[in-house]
Amino acid sequence: MSISTEMKPATTSSTLTEVTYGSPVYNQIMTWMIREARLLDHRQLDEWQTYLAEDLIYKVPVRLTRRVQGFDTEFSDVGHMDDDYGSMTARVQRLTGTKSAWAEDPASRVRRFVTNVSVWETDIPGEYKVSSYLLLTRNRADARDYKQLSAERNDRLRWNGERYLLAHRIVLIDQVVLGMPNLAIFL
Amino acid sequence: MRIDHLSKFQDDPVSHLMDLENREVSVAALYDPDLYELEMERIFAKAWLLLGHDSEIPKVGDYVVRLMGEDQVIVARAADNQVHVSLNVCPHRAMHVCIADSGNTRVHKCIYHGWAFRPDGSFIGAPIEKEKMHGEIKSKEQLGLKQARVATLGGLVFATFNHDGPSLDDWLGEMKFYYEMLFCRTDNGLEVLGPPQRLTIDANWKTAGEQSACDGFHTLTLHGSLLEGGAMAGEENTEHESAPAMYGVNVSGNGHSLRCIPADTSWAMMAGKTHPGMTDDERLEMMPPPGITRELLPQVRRNLTAEQLHVFAKAPPVVGGMFPNVNILFVYAPLRDGTLGSALVLHSINPKGVDKFEWVTYFFTEKDASPEVKHMMRAAAAQLTGTSGIIEQDDSDTWPHMSEASRGFMGRTETLKYQAILGENRPADWPNKARVYSGFSKDDAQWNWWLAYHELMTSKA
């Protein structure tokens, strides 16, 4: 099964030039990441949608347990999510514009903790590869426990002259068998 | 439960849970841990269970690890090019022999003490052959991995540990006539689009199991967000009266069932027009059933019988299940560019304790579909069904509520009711295959699911 570079966990051995931690571009992107998490946690999905590029690719590949020699090929072409801009806006519309999107009504209480952010320059000026770690906790109704999800997100962010837009996101989840019953939330 | 109660329970496990006359099932059936253990023995060790598709393991030595009840099994293609299903438990010390989800190997060697097995499960030997570390009491022939019976339908791999029970053909009975329209309609058949999605749902397996048996009714409310979007042809606020997709033909036999939705309804829903008075061939050309393209129609005409073609053209089966734990969605998927896509999806519902199950979701396509169609179907399936599907995310949020309700002492005194009865009625031109319920989708097929459950649970053989 072919694995694109975006579906491999990011490493520091990338041939791309890394943007220095604390530099202006790094800080802009870190600020974007924090804002994005805040918008999603607060269910401001219509505004979050304005963070998406119209050529968006958004995937959450299915993972398999393989022998250690195959650790780099644990991700498949099939996704838990396999989306583009149109399907993401349709998802947002269902969640915000209908009266019976029951998977998120009542809404989950979600926290997205985003850390370990690395940024690389790409061949395209103003476009950056960004890798981040995501720890997500989700609580619903009167559940005593939290459903948790940890993942690495490999993104491509594009500066459009005014703001960064998410053009590409591949979410590499650490679970083969997800512990939460659905992904009615965005990662 | 004390031993004397337990033996009485085994003689008569469900009469206190099922009211056959009034078509009710006690909510306690979702809660009782003793009942669950008996289900593992009488249903999951007896039924034919779906384990995947032979396109997942095309080469000799290919294997995937799957579930039969709570047992892991190795589904492998052996040197004889046949698919074999072996219990993934080393006969030596009960270690899992396979520790990856999939791969290719001619020798499955247990990492604990090194006992080795072929892909067909037969025992090769233990390390240090001259010391006879497998002993001299049992022969090598007796020390293979425990074997399940295997049968396929359209490449779908089914297995059972019931070596003396019915064949897969007998198990499916007359419903095979309808399943062939979904699984055996093209020259080269179906193929998987990749490994299945897997996730855990905190609910008893029967919550999803009974729903798979043609619960058309829940669509109106639980999937109301689709109605609001107009996907079921109802007008907002009046959809409960007008939604034509609720009218169709439910077919049911041996606990298996399918909902057949008239092509005229689908046309009205998807294209906003109807075409009465067309021939079967014209109907198929006008809007090929989900997963089929016009290019594939010559193959469909070759592979289905005239009777099957008539049903396939008039009202193709689109959703349903296979008793006890398979859910089928072979559905249209309206695409945003205005064209009509489709998604071919199978779920298996795998019990993981009385209040948990693992939901496994396979995406399919016809092997002979174009790469573009396959790409579209992969995305459409993920967007509509499974983990993040805008249809099914509402289902997976509902089932845990039912299990939670069953924990309440009073909750367990309630019943699941299957009292909306349509009754058998077969349209004049409909083949005399299985039980046929034409009209508004009611509880008939779901009650038949419970009758199949009752039959297995009360059968000790």
Tell me which oligomeric state these chains represent.
Answer: heterodimer
SSE succession of chain A: HHEEHEEEE
Report the CATH superfamily of the largest domain in chain B. Answer: Naphthalene 1,2-dioxygenase Alpha Subunit, Chain A, domain 1
Query: How many strands, which pairing sense, and closed or not: the largest β-sheet of chain B?
Result: 9 strands, antiparallel
Low-confidence parts of chain B: 233-237
Q: Which descriptor suits the 3D outline of chain B? A: globular
Classify the secondary structure makeup of chain B into a structural class. alpha+beta
Largest inter-chain interface? A-B, 38 and 43 residues
Number of domains of chain A: 1
Descriptive account of the structure:
The complex is a heterodimer of chains A (187) and B (461). Chain A is of the alpha+beta class and 187 residues long. Chain A has one domain: Nuclear Transport Factor 2, Chain: A, CATH 3.10.450. Helix content of chain A is 19%, strand content 38%. Chain A is built from three helices and six strands; from the N terminus they run H-H-E-E-H-E-E-E-E. In chain A, strands 2-1-6-5-4-3 form a six-stranded mixed sheet. Chain A is globular and about 45 Å long. The mean pLDDT of chain A is 93. Chain B has 461 residues and is α+β, with helices and mostly antiparallel strands. Chain B has two domains: 113 residues, 3-layer Sandwich (Rieske Iron-sulfur Protein); 285 residues, Alpha-Beta Complex (Naphthalene 1,2-dioxygenase Alpha Subunit, Chain A, domain 1). Chain B has 15 helices and 22 strands. In chain B, strands 13, 14, 15, 16, 17, 18, 19, 20 and 22 form a nine-stranded antiparallel sheet that branches. In chain B, strands 3-12-11-6-5-4-7 form a seven-stranded antiparallel sheet, with no helix packed on it. A three-stranded antiparallel sheet of chain B has the order 1-2-21, with no helix packed on it. In chain B, a hairpin with a 6-residue loop joins strand 8 and strand 9. Chain B starts with a helix and ends with a helix. At the A-B interface, strand 2 and helix 3 of A face strand 14, helix 7, strand 20, helix 13 and helix 14 of B.
